Backbone:
């Protein structure tokens, strides 16, 4: 940790506080709240936006979404490293927030959207949607008028509700016409750039703002845990508010209104952080102003080199998201294998004895997160499309917009996290608290169980829509799994890795978090269905696909969970909990890194203190 961001003595006598905490905490609370408001608001709309406005296929949208969320995690490694060595957290957060405002702002420029054209007997007709979201019906438009359309079971025929209005027969065989999509390339490229700006912005902001929270408290400060709890409540508050505002406005009034509101939220966060920076009292300043001003290439100094690195991230992220469907899965897998071999090689060749064992246990936790997040992160992709298209979302006589259901996870966290915290403490007093490896095993098992419950809901629905309480059920089961796994992961990695390898281990954690999100996109791609105008043409076939994919991933995850439970005594033995000694330097490194979530999901550290 740099000199500028070193933790101050516990509870300085002259410290300016609000409700007993450093006043800087509340600036970080509101900055983070608005950043999460903008991120989760945009996330709730994104997959629907890709499939309905730009008319990307389900498969292309899922992989693009997976690449986007994966890069958000991976880029926190670069943003955090640059802040630690050169920029300092204050400048990094400011730069990230500016990029985020630009990215969210660009998301509001949607253009006219892509056009799906149907060619029948040499004549072109446009197919569009009458609205947005899962309730928007498909409409066929001709020079003479427009008519609602639908498809019979098996999608062998298109049924035209008002054939006279469009000058077509009441039924048309689907093998007698062709469709093509014409895109407004300017706005498609604007979308890619907007996502790239958000990726880079989150990379610089999320990797550092929680570190500032840790820097506000001395290592022995008894207020530290409650301070992080207050901060993490800001995260969940932002997520809750965005689900109930951005999602509704985006679906009801227009994509640009929803994304625009997300951008306004991020701007509020940036202005808050800029206006009250003095309240941080220099704890997030650069480690060395002299080093920051050193020239590295002509007139370019170190500070500007860091900002230009951000530009490089934007270019790389834009090209990656743009071509995500071309990235071979084996390449991503090889990256994971290479890093795994490197970590194991480091443990074997550089460490010995108990230190080596603990590092191997840390590597286990780093890898064991993959199946959980690969399934959990379906929430923003395949599960969102599933909810929009196949679930009866009518509650109290109102059809609830799909993005609103994103609030369930944060809502369940707020309700159940304190219960879990009390439960673990009570069990610990009785010496019956499950070990960290056991908790991890249950977390992965519950990720699979959640999808198995949804498969049960599909079976119970027959040919109709799935009851909405099955969506409540899967989110509840997954949140219970998250509370088993998420608060444990980063904490264990920072405790088990030797002090000189904590940074490397944290980088590996975020890298595999990113790979998990990419894998989530691959899984979601498997649920892709045939669509017209972004809506299903064959509900029965779509249900069958979901059943197949969700059943397979459920059983695989549950089997992995059982295997993890069986080997948990071995992992516990490697951890050497009985001989672990408190190392202040190691603990300080761990605390600094623990508050560095990735994005979007950003679940591991974010939810830990909720």
Residues:
């Amino acid at each position: 940790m740099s000199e500028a961001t070193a933790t101050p003595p516990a509870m300085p006598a002259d410290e300016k506080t609000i409700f007993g905490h450093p006043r800087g905490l509340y600036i970080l609370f509101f900055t983070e709240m608005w950043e999460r408001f903008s991120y989760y608001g945009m996330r709730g709309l994104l997959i629907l936006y890709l499939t309905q406005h730009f008319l990307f296929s389900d498969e292309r949208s899922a992989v693009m979404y997976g690449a986007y969320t994966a890069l958000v995690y991976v880029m926190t490694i670069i943003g955090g490293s640059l802040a630690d060595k050169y920029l300092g957290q204050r400048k990094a957060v400011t730069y990230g927030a500016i990029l985020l405002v630009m990215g969210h702002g660009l998301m509001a420029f949607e253009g006219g959207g892509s056009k799906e054209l149907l060619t029948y007997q040499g004549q072109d007709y446009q197919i569009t949607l009458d609205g947005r979201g899962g309730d928007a019906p498909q409409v066929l438009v001709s020079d003479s008028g427009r008519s609602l359309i639908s498809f019979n079971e098996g999608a062998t025929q298109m049924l035209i509700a008002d054939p006279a209005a469009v000058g077509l027969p009441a039924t048309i065989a689907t093998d007698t016409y062709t469709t093509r999509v014409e895109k407004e390339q300017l706005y498609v490229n604007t979308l890619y750039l907007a996502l790239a700006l958000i990726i880079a912005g989150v990379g610089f902001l999320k990797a550092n703002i929680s570190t500032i929270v840790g820097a506000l408290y001395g290592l022995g400060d008894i207020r530290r845990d409650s301070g992080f709890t207050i901060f993490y409540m800001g995260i969940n508050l932002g997520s809750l508010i965005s689900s109930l505002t951005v999602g509704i406005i985006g679906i009801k009034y227009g994509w640009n209104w929803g994304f625009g509101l997300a951008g306004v939220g991020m701007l509020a966060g940036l202005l808050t952080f800029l206006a009250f920076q003095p309240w941080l009292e220099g704890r997030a300043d650069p480690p060395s102003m002299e080093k920051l001003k050193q020239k590295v290439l002509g007139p370019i100094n170190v500070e500007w080199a860091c900002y230009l690195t951000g530009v490089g991230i934007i270019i790389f992220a834009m090209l990656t998201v743009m071509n995500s469907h071309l990235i071979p899965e084996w390449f991503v897998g090889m990256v994971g294998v290479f890093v795994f071999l490197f970590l194991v090689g480091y443990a074997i060749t550089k460490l010995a004895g108990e230190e080596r064992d603990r590092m191997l246990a840390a590597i286990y936790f780093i890898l064991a997160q993959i199946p959980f997040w690969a399934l959990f992160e379906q929430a923003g992709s395949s599960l969102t499309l599933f909810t929009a298209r196949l679930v009866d979302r009518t509650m109290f006589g109102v059809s609830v917009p799909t993005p609103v259901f994103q609030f369930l996870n944060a809502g369940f966290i707020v309700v159940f996290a304190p219960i879990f915290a009390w439960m673990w403490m009570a069990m610990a007093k009785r010496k019956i608290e499950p070990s960290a490896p056991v908790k991890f095993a249950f977390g992965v098992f519950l990720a699979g169980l959640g999808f198995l419950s949804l498969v049960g809901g599909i079976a119970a629905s027959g040919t109709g829509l799935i009851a909405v309480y099955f969506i409540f059920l899967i989110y509840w089961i997954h949140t219970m799994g998250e509370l088993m796994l998420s608060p444990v992961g980063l904490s264990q990695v920072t405790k088990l890795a030797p002090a000189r390898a904590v940074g490397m281990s944290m980088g590996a954690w975020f890298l595999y978090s990113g790979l998990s999100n990419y894998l989530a996109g691959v899984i979601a791609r498997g649920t892709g269905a045939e669509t017209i105008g972004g809506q299903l043409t064959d509900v029965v076939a779509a249900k069958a696909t979901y059943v197949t994919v969700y059943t397979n991933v459920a059983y695989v995850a549950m089997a992995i969970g059982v295997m993890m439970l069986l080997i948990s005594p071995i992992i516990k033995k490697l951890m050497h909990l009985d001989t672990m000694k408190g190392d202040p330097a190691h603990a300080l490194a761990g605390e600094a890194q623990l508050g560095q979530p990735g994005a979007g999901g950003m679940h591991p550290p974010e939810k830990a203190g909720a």
Remarks:
- The chain is about 65% helix and 10% strand.
